[in-house]
Amino acid sequence: MCAEGLLIAAVLECIDASESRRKYREGVTALTTAIRLSSYGQAVRSQAKSTN
Q1: Any idea which UniProt keywords this protein has (predicted)?
Q2: Does a structural domain hold residue 48?
Q3: Residue 38: which domain range?
Q4: pTM (2 d.p.)
């Protein structure tokens, strides 16, 4: 029982770690996308100002 319990705990820990890594990656991707979009928006706005 003890060895099985440790194995299950290790597997759950591994799943938990990979889940948090995935969430971290998704967060970083969302953040970089937001930064790209905002810088793209600034470029469009500055170009619109220069043409007017």
Answers
A1: Plasmid
A2: yes
A3: 20-52
A4: 0.54
